[in-house]
Design brief:
The complex is a heterodimer of chains A (108) and B (109). In chain A, strands 2, 4, 5, 9, 10 and 11 form a 6-stranded mixed beta sheet that branches. A 5-stranded antiparallel beta sheet of chain A has the order 1-3-8-7-6, with no helix packed on it. Chain A has 108 residues and is an all-beta fold. Chain A has no helices and 11 strands. In chain A, strand 9 (85-92) and strand 10 (96-98) form a beta hairpin. Chain B is 0% helix and 54% strand. Chain B is globular, with a radius of gyration of 13 Å. Classes of the chains: A mainly beta (108), B mainly beta (109). The interface between A and B is medium-sized, with 20 and 23 residues.
Chain lengths: 108, 109
Amino acid sequence: QKEVEQNSGPLSVPEGAIASLNCTYSDRGSQSFFWYRQYSGKSPELIMFIYSNGDKEDGRFTAQLNKASQYVSLLIRDSQPSDSATYLCAVKDNDMRFGAGTRLTVKP
Amino acid sequence: NAGVTQTPKFRILKIGQSMTLQCTQDMNHNYMYWYRQDPGMGLKLIYYSVGAGITDKGEVPNGYNVSRSTTEDFPLRLELAAPSQTSVYFCASLHGELFFGEGSRLTVL
């Protein structure tokens, strides 16, 4: 059974701080990893994807992948109240499986 | 492009009734997925399809059926609805990233 695990949270950070979200996966053969953001009552929206070991940066967001440790993370720098949402980690083979999500609150 | 369209957006069913959630995409994507999301939880994969005529079970397929007769359509069938199937259902297609529909909120009473 393929598993995707996220730190359950909730996570609360002050405005301007760095938020760190973590995810582990069980299938060592997985190749594609995604972070989605979901606001309450809305569909998930893509933040970033990462395929290769190392870091990938996009604006205030950095995804980190370590395939040897089966670990993927998302860092949000200079967190803003508008970043308050649930963050979902997803791992793709032929199927696409999600973790349970981490609820992030950024306090002004 | 309309993207991924789900219908209905809301539905209340009685226990034991059946219904079909419709999902259509106009992007010619081969991969399509059905998820359910219970309150405060992540998305659980119900069924997926890698192309017309091909479907496969996900994490929580019991109580559901799907078909994929065309690239565009991927309906999800609920037989003998149970209160445990009360959830929000998302359909998505994949091309590099997932493209989600707006969701269908189903309540079984």
